[in-house]
Amino acid sequence: MTVPAAAEDLLRRLTPQVLGVVARRYGDFAEAEDAVQEALLAATLQWPEQGVPENPKAWLVTVASRRMTDQIRSESARRRREEAVYAQSPPDELVAAAADEVTEHRDDTLMLLLLCCHPALSPPSQLALTLRAVGGLTTAEIAGAFLVPEATMAQRISRAKQKIKSAGSTFQAPPAHEVPERMRVVLHVLYLMFNEGYAATSGPDLLRAELTGEAIRLTRALHQIRPDDGEVAGLLALMLLTEARRGARTGPDGDLIPLAEQDRGKWDAERIAEGVDLVTRTLAAARIGPYQVQAAIAAVHDEAPRAEDTDWKQILSLYQLLDVLAPNPVVLLNQAVAAAMVHGPEAGLALLDRLAEDERLTGHHRLAAVRAHLLEMAGDDDGARSAYQLAAKRTTSLPERRYLESRVARLGGR
Amino acid sequence: MKYLLIITMNPTVFETLSEADREAVFAGHDALIKELNETGEMVGFAALADPSATKTVRVRDGVPAVTDGPYVEAKEFLAGYYMVDCESTERAVELAAKIPDATFNAIEVRPLMEPGGLEM
Question: Can you give the pTM of this predicted structure?
Fold first, then answer.
């Protein structure tokens, strides 16, 4: 099933719009989603041979609607009646777009995002459903991205749809007072999607890498719908500024290269410029939130021409701000690194000692890894070596373990 | 995050179980498989044949030497596994507790290594 990249891109872009129209018309998200998937499948089979239709969106809506009506009625009399009604309705999809149509598509996309990120679902299910319904990825692609069998992913998705259905999934906007909380979930799901892709390196894991592109595309779409939402802009900027470093963060064997040792010439200047611009504009105007602060930290890193030019003072104060806005042990861990860069390794190690009591982090390899780096900075090679060894044992990431073991070797240990 | 739920069993313990207990074990597995399929957490599972059906292979100087029986001399042997993809260690432990063999023997919960990693 090879589709030219342009057609595939088109399909992905049209998916939420088509699903929006069909779900709104028939009011049943789960059925509509199935119907649209079949329409997408039909398109990937037919378009490469017959060419992309003149109005691809109308084509998809028609095919999906036909499938919907097939599902809905059982008797042939009703079938004829409905087909008559149906035959009269598509013209509005076939005429040129009205001036306000764009707005409607945007609302549909947002509504779909809110629906897929339904709080009744677990984060992995929200993620899978978003990728399929809004991202237009096939179940096989999503399964590949998460390294699980296709049957597993299919079950996860159909279960998620059932849950949405039983939680009362009419295609309607959630009540206004629920929107901020739902938006928070939407942003978190997009963030998870990005991380899932970013954690992967290269080679056979290309599908996972594609997730970052998908996360950026969807967050960009969300930013267009809600340009004044500072956290949406912040998340988009964070993704762009992080993605900009992709080319430099792994060596030829997929080994991790830490930020300080990356070849900054390989960073994507265009993405950095866009991200920095977003951060600058948002921080000035919108209400501050955790994604914006994280984006600001990424911007400070990305703007340093050399690692030693990094403005650690600014990073430290941003982490302190983040610690107030969204306190969590990982933030404090990063703050310890920044404190060490500004005030020396002892200051960082003192912060880590406070963290050692935090049971959310004890046993986590990141704590040991950061301690190892700071001990190495302080010249305590023996302490650093055993902390690196401990971190290497605890991590479940293969590239991270290779990296940590290489630090042990560099310190002349075994 | 993926976890391997390793069912370690002492074959003699299983032999001492009553018919009803054995039935309960099988029924428990059926129920767990159904649940894992429904939640979408199932990645795979397998039951292993008795240790007596094992061959052990050693290659020495390029020559394979094959002997009957398991490599490790122990009372407990790997009896089977579930591979699950779930949200947290807590959930993996919860699932392990649902494996009926946990009542008679022990289940090990081991995270799988991931092919990616965060920037360090």
Answer: 0.84
